[in-house]
DNA sequence: ATCCCGCTCCGCCGCACGGGGGAGGACCGC
DNA sequence: GCGGTCCTCCCCCGTGCGGCGGAGCGGGAT
């Protein structure tokens, strides 16, 4: 069962990293590096030209980063490569973005050569492997849970934001006033502004908007 | 580089499934089925005896299901096997539970033999593979985003639940009444019950509770 | 047959809330 | 200096909301 070699594109802004990766991967007979890129934009065009099976994509790159490049590749190409996103720290928020962008895999730079090779073979050969729709669903849920905040969030002034947060904990105007150390009339003014800017008629609607907008994420 | 064979335990309540899995896996020289179990409890004891490298765990089993068995195995054994959870439908809520329980992999029953074998080799050989802490973090976030609903959720009657959902979209009592096809007085009664059962004084507080309790997950 | 519960309504009352005004002071940029 | 924004606070008024008590009706349990 001899398969054609796995075609790989490397995208990393540091030449040394690319060289190291190429050395590791080229040592395997079934792997073949067919292109390199130093920027996100370059990665997109190189992938479009070389049509690899797998792309190793660094997150931090000048210009368009690896995440955006991943999005663009998956959006543009009809049969995109499996994209493995590479980063240094595992607890990066990049992880979520990478999965959401459609990355097939996620790899740490500190990974040893064996792990790297195995990961490449894995994503290349598997149509749907270990975490098929599961990860996708989790990432989608993450996206649903952390949507892009609406425009009105930015328009809220500092005080109005405070008031909205307190509103969204179920406090009355009087309680908010005490909590903020101002008069009730002031709170009423801020509440009115919040209602206007959020397009709500109720404080209840404003609270709903706050939650739906992810404004209350983090207490 | 000849390694010792990968020791595998199969846990599935259907004998035919176990037989089929054993047939597929035994055909590979580097795989060895060292035990079978038909229930979750049995799986725990068999794994404890046989000390396999990998356990294929069906979710639906009489008594303790695969998820609980996974939890117990990982909690009890010092060097637990890599557990691959097997189920029929990929959009099961089991997926989240499996990942949260600490399953190393997730496999669909419709997977072909090649995928199955590859998955087993994969989880067996990899200390930390493609989605190391990423999946764990996502699953943890899922757990945080979907906490166990408070007791009052169960106490709500059907109508009260409907009213709460409509409240939590920012509707007034009159609008809820129209939306439900009942009189405003009826809605007031239900609202009062909801406030009492949720321990809220406001409709606003009730809405907050609804969101915090994950009551509004899914629009 | 009885009780309990859920769903459906009614009236009355007090009040926090929201709308519509206005006003003064602090800060910033042109 | 002057306009703009933000924060602060005031009054009046209408009303949606929530608390209280009561009532009829149907179904399931005992």
UniProtKB/TrEMBL annotation, chains A, B:
Entry superkingdom: Bacteria
One example of the protein's molecular function in GO is:
DNA binding
User: 4-aspartylphosphate occurs at which residues?
Assistant: 58
Entry keyword Transcription: yes
Q: Which GO terms describe its biological process?
A: phosphorelay signal transduction system; regulation of DNA-templated transcription
**Keyword Phosphoprotein applies:** yes
Q: Which CDD domains match?
A: LuxR_C_like, REC_NarL-like
Give all residue intervals belonging to the Response regulatory domain.
7-124
Tell me where the signal peptide lies. Answer: none
Every copy of the HTH luxR-type domain together lies at 149-214
What is the name of this protein? Answer: Response regulator transcription factor
Protein species of origin: Streptomyces griseicoloratus
Q: What are the leading ranks of the lineage? A: Bacteria, Bacillati, Actinomycetota, Actinomycetes, Kitasatosporales
């Amino acid at each position: 069962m001899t398969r054609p070699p796995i075609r790989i594109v490397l995208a990393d802004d540091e030449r040394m990293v690319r060289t190291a990766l190429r050395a590791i991967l080229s040592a395997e007979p079934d792997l073949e590096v067919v292109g390199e890129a130093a920027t996100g934009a370059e990665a997109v065009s190189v992938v479009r030209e070389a049509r690899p099976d797998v792309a190793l994509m660094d997150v931090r790159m000048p210009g368009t980063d690896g995440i955006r490049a991943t999005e663009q590749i998956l959006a543009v190409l009809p049969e995109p490569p499996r994209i493995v996103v590479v980063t240094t720290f595992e607890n990066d928020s990049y992880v979520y973005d990478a999965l959401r962008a459609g990355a097939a895999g996620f790899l740490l730079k500190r990974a040893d050569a064996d792990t790297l090779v195995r990961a490449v073979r894995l994503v290349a050969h598997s149509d749907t492997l270990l975490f098929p729709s599961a990860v996708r669903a989790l990432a989608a849920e993450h996206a649903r849970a952390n949507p892009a905040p609406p425009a009105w969030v930015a328009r809220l002034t500092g005080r109005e934001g405070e008031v909205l947060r307190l509103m969204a904990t179920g406090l009355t105007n009087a309680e908010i006033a005490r909590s903020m150390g101002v008069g009730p009339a002031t709170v009423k003014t801020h509440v009115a502004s919040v209602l206007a800017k959020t397009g709500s008629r109720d404080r209840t609607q404003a609270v709903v908007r706050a939650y739906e907008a992810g404004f209350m994420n983090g207490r």
